[in-house]
Amino acid sequence: MLDEKTIHIVQSTAPVLKEHSKEIGKRFYQLLFEKVPDLLNIFNQTNQKRGLQQEALGYAVYAAGEHITNLDALKSVIERISQKHRAIGIKAEQYPIVGETLLQAVKDVLGDAATDEIIEAWGKAYGYISDAFISLEKKLYEETKQQPGGWEGYRTFYVDRKEKESEEVISFYLKPKDGEAIASYKAGQYLTIKTKIPGEKYTHIRHYSLSEAPDKDYYRISIKREDEHDGAPDGIVSNFLHHHIQSGDTLEFSAPAGDFILTDDNLPIVLISGGIGITPLLSMLNSIVEEKDPRQVIFIHATSNSQTHPFKEHVMQLNSKANVKSYICYTSPTEEDKKAKNYDKEGYIDLDFLQSIIPTKEVQFYFCGSIPFMEAMIKALNEWNVPKGNMHYEVFRPVAILGEE
Fold this sequence. Notes:
Blueprint: H1 4-19, H2 21-35, H3 45-50, H4 52-66, H5 75-88, H6 95-110, H7 116-146, E1 155-164, E2 169-176, E3 190-195, E4 204-209, E5 219-224, H8 236-244, E6 250-257, E7 269-274, H9 278-290, E8 297-303, H10 312-318, E9 324-330, H11 335-340, E10 345-346, H12 351-357, E11 364-368, H13 371-383, E12 391-394
Helix pairs in contact: 1-4, 1-7, 2-4, 2-6, 5-7, 6-7
């Protein structure tokens, strides 16, 4: 445990680190990649260029300091990060260099304000927090390897087939090259791919939600082609997979991971997806139907229009089930959509719409989509006074961006 003096110093200086969080994050990654350039094979370079990881790191440092005496307050964040660390292969021996670099970044940014006493206190705090991560991740590695069909590191799969789901989305059906059994997973979890793309200096790692119910003899991931927009470049990995990977080609994946899963209770379920955020929620929906789960389910999907709407017919078929009701929101319906009246709301999902179709807030809400979409859902549900424990979401951008945790 940490001594009282260390706790006092860390908690009193956490707001200062928060104020300079972006600069600390930026300096940290600059130093880290200078010291260990091989880590560029692990970190998402697109998020680096856009400053997302830098901002998230700074926030995480502040949050850890603020809650240093009660890490349970950060339990969901720690579990989510640990799942991702296990998925990409972060090891215990990498933590010391990260801690050393983080403290150097704090010193470089704060200058004389970062006294030896402050740096020493934050060093102790980092050791305390990293021990929590290392312990949890060790357990995750062991469980993953020992489960039926499980494996350590990355395993080779071949693309059994590709299916176009919309103008932007393609599903990849994956089977293990070795022909052996594959690990099961919980609906809502994801696979992690490691790709070596021609012309790229470093490997690229991405998380893609499994879009099918568990316990098949294949995995299915459904990937949106990320095209250049709003200053963001084309998605390197998504475009590579869409345009260059064909049936029979092989890819490397780590075992399923993730903490975005259905709770085990009797409350009704509301699944809300925006764009490609439909994938983990579709896995949940399929799982509920296949397992004949008696809980009432409302499934809401928001996208631009029918051209960008994957799995529409499939969900409509499930809509005939007694306990499933689905709704569609189009923000930019085509003229054909308007004539066909094939959606329930034009525009964005808002609280008024949610309250018009959900009879009670005493439900479990699960949602996934873009950062603005997630923030809008959190805002709406907070306005409805939905308990935080009844809000569950997945985000593949660096965790801290939502700021909710």
